[in-house]
Design a protein that fits this description.
This protein has helices spanning 18-34, 41-52, 77-87, 90-104, 106-112, 116-128, 149-174, 177-183, 216-228, 233-242, 245-251, 258-278, 294-305; strands at residues 2-5, 11-14, 55-58, 66-68, 72-75, 194-198, 205-209. It is mainly alpha-helical. The protein has a three-stranded mixed beta sheet, with helices on one face. Strand 1 and strand 2 (11-14) form a beta hairpin. Helix 5 (106-112) packs across helix 6 and helix 12 crosses helix 13. The protein starts with a strand and ends with a helix.
């Protein structure tokens, strides 16, 4: 049991349970409609079925707070409760709104949905038409055997965290002073633009970010969006929730962009793996994995941020 100490001397007992999580599903659906992230009622109904059909399972001694698949949501109550003591009640919303946003965006569907193998084969075949080692610059060949789908995971995480933060900020803005104090001790300062120094690469680099979780992914995703889609990050996020955006991107590839997008996804994947390892979520897959050398991760950042 957690004693959550709020301001003004008020003490609340907060338990993270399946019942509480299920109540967050309806709240989440209301907010993605209210913020006009999703406006199609048929889509909202579909997402409601997907979320309400989830099996919710508690786990123990996990490195993170929660993880979602296509049919199940796993959560570590102890980790979430400890973080609420430090951050405030909003942390609970941030965690589960993040996970729910994984389930309903088209990038995650390509990674974990029921048709993922069909989608991945179609996309891989399209990219293979234009991508061969001979077309790559010498400095890029090191990464040719990297999995570009790891880069798709980075974009999926960017979408999920961005949606969660937008909803939390919207909810926070509507609370009265007393409730806002309990909801967020620090005024959601972690959602403000900051210069963040990441040490997943050598030498470390400083980047701008507004993401409280996976801060490295913010600028990387934004550069990818600007380079290949020529739309704003907010439009990208909305499209990812309303259409099969990843397949549309790949279907529109031509010989001038296919090789570039393949390699950029590989570089994004290298950054994603480095961040996952630094958070203790995984270990390198093999001894010769480029992610083991932080100089390679720095090269990936330089590729994404400068080239």
């Amino acid at each position: 049991m957690l004693l959550y100490i709020a301001t003004k001397g008020v003490i609340l007992v907060i338990l993270v349970t399946e019942r509480l999580i299920r109540s967050k599903i309806d709240e989440y659906l209301n907010w993605i409609s209210k913020t006009r992230l999703v406006t199609d009622q048929k889509l909202l109904d579909k997402y409601s079925r997907m979320l309400n059909n989830l099996q919710i399972k508690r786990i123990y001694d996990a490195p993170g707070d929660a993880q979602i698949g296509y049919e199940s949501l796993y959560y570590c109550a102890e980790n979430i409760e400890q973080q609420m003591v430090y951050h405030g009640l909003y942390y609970l919303d941030e965690v589960f709104f993040h996970e729910f946003s994984h389930l309903i965006n088209s990038f995650h569907n390509a990674l974990a949905g029921p048709n993922r193998f069909i989608i991945r084969d179609a996309i891989s075949n399209k990219m293979d038409e234009f991508t061969t080692p001979e077309l790559l610059e010498e400095s890029d060949r090191l990464l040719f055997n990297q999995d570009p789908w790891l880069g798709v995971i980075l974009l999926d995480e960017y979408i999920a965290q961005s949606v969660a933060q937008e909803i939390v900020k919207g909810k926070n803005s509507e609370l009265d002073f007393f409730d806002k104090e309990m909801y967020s001790f620090n005024g959601l300062k972690e959602f403000n633009l900051i210069n963040y120094t990441t040490r997943v690469c050598e030498p470390p680099i400083t980047i701008p970010t507004t993401l409280a979780d996976y801060p490295e992914f913010d600028i990387c995703a934004q550069r990818f969006i600007s380079k290949y889609l020529h739309i704003s990050p907010s439009e990208f996020i909305k499209k990812s929730l309303n259409e099969d955006l990843l397949r549309n991107i790949i279907n529109n590839l031509d010989t001038n962009t296919a090789g570039e997008i393949y390699i950029d996804l590989c570089y994004l994947g290298l950054i994603k793996e480095a961040v996952s390892i630094s958070k203790g979520h995984k270990q390198a897959d093999r001894p010769d994995d480029p992610v083991n050398d932080k100089r390679n991760v720095n090269m990936a950042f330089q590729r994404i941020l400068i080239k």
